[in-house]
Specification:
The complex is a heterodimer of chains A (232) and B (366).
Chain A: E1 3-14, E2 18-29, E3 33-38, H1 44-51, E4 59-64, E5 67-68, H2 74-84, E6 85-88, H3 100-111, H4 116-125, H5 141-153, E7 159-163, H6 171-186, E8 190-194, H7 198-201, E9 206-211, E10 214-220, H8 221-227
Parallel strand pairs in A: 3-8, 3-9, 6-7, 7-8
Antiparallel strand pairs in A: 1-2, 1-4, 4-5, 9-10
Chain B: H1 2-12, H2 14-50, E1 56-60, E2 66-67, H3 77-80, E3 83-96, E4 99-106, H4 108-114, E5 119-122, E6 130-134, H5 135-141, E7 148-153, E8 156-167, E9 175-179, H6 180-187, E10 192-193, E11 195-200, H7 206-216, E12 220-224, H8 226-268, H9 270-278, H10 283-320, H11 331-355, H12 359-364
Parallel strand pairs in B: 4-9, 6-8
Antiparallel strand pairs in B: 1-11, 1-12, 2-10, 3-4, 3-7, 3-11, 5-8, 6-9, 7-8
The chains are: A alpha/beta (232), B alpha+beta (366).
Chain lengths: 232, 366
């Protein structure tokens, strides 16, 4: 079995006082959809940041797509991010003075070179083909999040990491966005979500529940669904 | 994409960019004005100081007299351009109305040019038989403008008409100032001089003039009239120092203004830069975005400052020195170089800090 993400006893301390991750071991298969759940401060976002090479662990091992993230220097980590990881944020984080198309092209620009056609195609895939020249301020929350998804996909990244991707959306837009994620999953993308919402979590193949920086219940979501387990 | 980010971000912070441009333009304009005025001020100042008279005195090195024919040395092309003028003198004591008086034979046209501050009551002599009476001489002998006086020495005598009474604040007030040839004939010393006053441009190197005269005029001893010469040098060097200090202070103030503007921009765009880092931008790409914006602000500010500086130089030139200032070819490159340099220098720490931003912390909103 080939794992896209493999971590062992991963620990992250802040200032030697606060332990955000405490010897976390986790493996994520290629094409798997994993939801990470837990209360605020449980370490979910820290875990996501480690896999995205946005933060550096204190100890343990972490491999993503056969790359040892602990051995990478700062600029190598930047290269890893632009080549391997698609990031989606709760607050969208779009550049306000760039159009939807240019926001997607921004990821291409840092990756290699811009391709207007490819960027427009990525926006069409998320249903925004008619709004490529709109500024973020002219788009609804759901549309902005779909631009983020297009930006995360445009370079053919290996893994999509999303931190509360539906946290700022109403239920209608939430359904639209989740439909896109389902399509991506069906197409074989590897997805790793951080979410508070059990409804969102249950759509994943597997739910990882975290508490005080540790994984406490790596229960397959299907079992949870069958057992009607509610997590909040 | 770089162009879109650049234009988009400048458009977004138009007012802040305008303030920065104006701050740099102000600093650059003063420096450009100073650069333009520097040459003119030196020239004008030297000209003003020239009105205070000669700065070199030639006296006989051996024997009692200098040879008048040696004045040709002062017409030599190697020194002529550095000289504003010269005045030969033959000082002798003669009897004026029965009293011993110093008679100064000189070229009256030359001394009028070299001593414009002399106050003449009456008029300057226009003929050889006219003279200027020093104020003290006129007072003691009761001389008035238009009087006729007799000057005698040994068996020679001449009759002169007093054209004017002169006040100089110096030794000339105790003398009767007469045409050189008249005195030479009276005293039987044709072709001889007792001294020559020379006015040399200080900014072109007084020392070079002195060295030339010492080398070429063997019979003369060259003395520097230190008060005037040193005053010129001192005023010029003080002026340069003053301009330099003002320039540095203005640049420092402009730099602080740009730093504040860039720091505010960095703070406002923190999330934007963190996002770019999260998307895989390298530090140098982030630094380049900020540095190119700073350089553009500096360049436009410098360009504007060059134009303002040229105008300012003309205004100062006309109001202070009553002359137009010749624009320096270095104005534009100087202004732009100052603008870009100050903008980059003052935003250096901001650029470095922004490039080193921690995306995880910023994007999380901590």
């Amino acid at each position: 079995m080939k794992f896209l993400v493999s971590m062992s006893e991963l620990t992250k301390d802040y200032n030697g006082k606060v332990r955000a991750l405490d010897q976390v071991s986790l493996e994520v298969r290629q094409g798997e959809w994993v939801a990470v759940m837990g209360a605020s401060g449980s370490g979910k976002t820290t875990l996501l940041n480690m896999i995205a090479a946005l933060d550096r662990p204190t100890s343990g091992s972490l491999w993503v797509d056969e790359i040892d993230l602990l051995s990478l220097g700062e600029e190598e980590r930047a290269r890893f991010r632009r080549e391997k990881v698609g990031l989606i944020f709760q607050q969208f984080h779009l550049i306000p003075y760039l159009t939807a198309l240019e926001n997607v092209m921004l990821a291409q620009y840092f990756h290699s070179m811009t391709d207007k056609g490819e960027a427009a195609e990525a926006l069409r895939q998320v249903g925004l083909g008619e709004r490529i020249d709109f500024l973020p301020s002219e788009l609804s929350g759901g549309e902005q999040q779909r631009v983020c998804i297009a930006r995360a996909l445009v370079n053919g990244q290996k893994i999509i990491l999303a931190d509360e991707p539906t946290g700022n959306l109403d239920s209608k837009n939430e359904d639209l966005v989740m439909e896109i994620f389902n399509d991506l999953h069906q197409a074989g993308h590897t997805l790793l979500f951080v979410t508070h919402d059990p409804h969102i979590g249950r759509q994943a193949d597997r739910i990882i529940e975290m508490e005080h920086g540790r994984i406490v219940s790596p229960v397959p979501a299907q079992i949870q669904k069958a057992g009607n387990i509610s997590r909040q | 994409m770089q162009r879109r980010i650049f234009i988009g971000s400048l458009r977004r912070c138009k007012s802040r960019a305008v303030i920065s441009v104006l701050a740099i333009a102000l600093g650059a304009s003063l420096i450009v004005a100073a650069v333009n005025l520097r040459g003119s001020i030196r020239g004008k100042l030297a000209e003003e100081l020239r009105s205070y008279g000669a700065n070199l005195l030639l006296v006989p090195a051996t024997g009692p007299f200098l040879q008048e024919k040696d004045l040709l040395i002062l017409e030599d092309n190697r020194v002529k351009d550095r000289l504003i003028g010269y005045v030969p003198f033959l000082h002798r004591v003669a009897s004026l109305q029965g009293r011993d008086t110093v008679i100064a034979g000189t070229r009256l046209v030359a001394i009028k040019k070299l001593s414009p501050w002399w106050q003449v009551n009456g008029r300057w002599p226009e003929r050889k038989n006219e003279a200027l009476a020093g104020f003290n001489v006129a007072s003691k002998l009761g001389l008035r403008v238009g009087d006729s006086v007799t000057v005698s020495q040994a068996k020679s005598r001449i009759t002169l008409s007093i054209a004017g009474i002169v006040r100089t604040g110096g030794a000339e007030e105790h003398q009767l100032i007469v045409d050189l040839e008249e005195v030479q004939l009276l005293t039987g010393l044709p072709g001889l001089l007792s001294s020559v006053l020379v006015s040399s441009r200080a900014e072109n190197g007084l020392d070079r003039t002195v060295a030339f005269l010492q080398r070429e005029w063997r019979g003369a001893e060259v003395r520097t009239l230190l008060q005037v010469a040193r005053a010129e040098e001192s005023v010029l060097s003080r002026l340069q120092f003053f301009l330099m200090v003002i320039g540095i202070l203005v640049l420092f103030a402009s730099g602080l203004s740009v730093f504040a503007t860039m720091a505010t921009a960095a703070l406002e765009r923190k999330v934007e830069m963190a996002l770019m880092r999260a998307l895989g931008a390298e530090k140098r790409q982030i630094a380049w975005i900020f540095a190119s914006e700073a350089a553009a602000i500096g360049g436009v500010g410098g360009l504007l400052g060059s134009a303002l500086g040229l105008i300012l130089a003309q205004v100062i030139g006309l109001s202070v020195f009553r002359a137009l200032v010749l624009p320096s070819l270095m104005s534009l490159p100087t202004g732009i170089a100052i603008g870009v340099g100050i903008a980059l220098l003052s935003s250096l720490s901001v650029v470095r800090k922004t490039a080193a931003i921690a995306p995880a912390v910023v994007l999380k909103g901590e």
